[in-house]
Amino acid sequence: MTRILVVDDEPQILRALRINLRARRYDVDIAGSGAAALKAAASHPPDLVVLDLGLPDIDGVEVIRGLRGWTAVPIIVLSGRAGSEDKVAALDAGADDYVTKPFGVEELLARIRAVTRRLGASTEAVPALRIGQHTVDLADHRVLRDDGTEVKLTPTQWSVLEKLLRHPGKLVSQRQLLQDVWGPEYQNETNYLRQYLAQLRRKLEDDPARPRHLITEPGMGYRYRP
């Protein structure tokens, strides 16, 4: 059973989400603060986190960074902050998706299903691929530097990278990437792609400012150059 940690300081939202998620056979833990969320995640590691940004003790973006220090668990941000700066900050910290309050429960459930599908997607056998000083093994979901240390990627970072690496040398359009990774309702969220490609370049390219392998084709899409 999929375990979901719901983090929000509004008791009515916690109660509503716990009822709706349990009715759909999810195992649900709840937390009303950032500190409680980090403690709960460490004690009973979740399969997915639904996280409010406006917490009473620790800003939600800091909670994301705290989680990303040790886990790649998918994180869906749930927040009343509708500004693009807040979305960028959350995505850049490592969130996988962003839902703005007020929201419909069915919309949130659809986002949860999409993230868990990405997490559980099967991987066809492919040879190991190279990006700079890194070897990417898609079958094992591992990235190793040449010195043997492992680079951690979040599930969504993996999904974006995999879509590019499975089409070496070919242009993958923005629309195709957004639809394949996030779903058809995200075809205009090009800011998601900019954030995730920037994250991948920081982790994998020798010079992220001058990428040699994860290439942007302005106005069209992205390309993996072997």
Automatic annotation (TrEMBL):
InterPro entries recorded: CheY-like_superfamily, OmpR/PhoB-type_DNA-bd, Sig_transdc_resp-reg_C-effctor, Sig_transdc_resp-reg_receiver, WalR-like, WH-like_DNA-bd_sf
An example Gene Ontology molecular-function term: cis-regulatory region sequence-specific DNA binding
Segments of the chain annotated as binding DNA: 126-226
Subcellular location: Cytoplasm
Superkingdom, taxonomy of origin: Bacteria
CDD domains named in the record: trans_reg_C
A single cellular component GO annotation: cytosol
Domain Response regulatory: 3-116
Name of the protein this chain belongs to: DNA-binding response regulator
